[in-house]
Amino acid sequence: MTSTDSKPQSFEIRPDPQGLTSNPPQNSSSGVDYEPHPEKSIGLSPEREKIVQSICRLYSGSASKEDMEVYAEQAVYDDPWSYCDTRFKIAGQWYGIPKVMASSKTLKTEAVSSTESEIIFKLQQEYTPRIAHFSKPVNSLVSLSLDGEGKVKYHKDMWNDKDYSHEGLGKVMKTLNGDQLTRITRPPEDL
Fold it and tell me: Is the pTM of this model over 0.85?
């Protein structure tokens, strides 16, 4: 691996949403169905299952140091709202969930791919904001790129069939959110 290959961005997975979501598009004009169907889930090794369970606990607002340790120290978290490039900044996202959500529950998952260097699964998460108190299930495709030690190096959460741009104003806003949220959520410094 060259020094340019060791950058976290080199671990980014660009999944094929249509290829990985082979369920009939019942609720999507894009041909992408991110709704998990657990009965169709592929089997995962116990180590991989532990990673997925830690990630689901993080989505559910119960951030813990143990769950955060699935991430490499220089990992990336990438979703439509945030771009974080260290485990500490990623913790800022997870420690923020209980501050803005009355509850967040993982309803179901479906593992759709597992290779030596990645895990990809569909996730249905139900969010209940503190202010509005209505619950909304959200389906997404979660891609986890793993380093040689089995740590998550790049975590991408896709909410629709379009991949993310890492340019322009959108990237600036995502990075600003990732860089500043730790000041509000205050995760432990030793992450």
Answer: no
